[in-house]
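Marked as duplicate of an earlier ticket. Keeping the data here for the record.
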Amino acid sequence: MIGSYRFSVSRMIPRMTQVALQTHKKDLMRETPNFAKRKFLYRLSRSDYEKQWGKDYVKPGTGTRIMSTLLRYMPKIGPFKAMAFKNPTPQTEDLYFKSINTTVDQYRAFLVQVGADTLTLPNRDFDTGNLTRAAEYTLTDGTYAKLLAQLSDREFNLTSPELRANILDFYSDLSAPIDTKAMRFAGGK
């Protein structure tokens, strides 16, 4: 799952941003006379970007250009018509840029905390945003059940005190309607 996330962040999102820019550049320039490609792609200044990531910038390749051409014409015909691009409203654009700026600012704050070895993150379910607890989310219940089964197979030899405390906290309320409870006691996995 982490590999998929890394791929999405490092490859897919920037590539789709390039495709969107390539596909709708004329619309963006028409709607925003002072449109800056750099602002659309990155929040960092060019010098900050180069300092952190190097001077290698990969311009949109042939695949990106082909994909943008297909996306430009395909949604207008057949079953792909529903995928037609609709320009966001100014309010939507503002929300988008504010969310990106907030995310970048929070990420930078987290990096400072990592550098100072003071980062503590709450145990949250990334799908719901709620604190992780039993019976809150079916997939979480299943994940904890699988983790417990794997640790049990190894006779709990790899269990750190922190992990043990986390598991005990998760299962502290046995009256909760945990999705995997009936399955585990019935002998299932």
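See parent ticket for discussion. Residues 88-120 form one domain.
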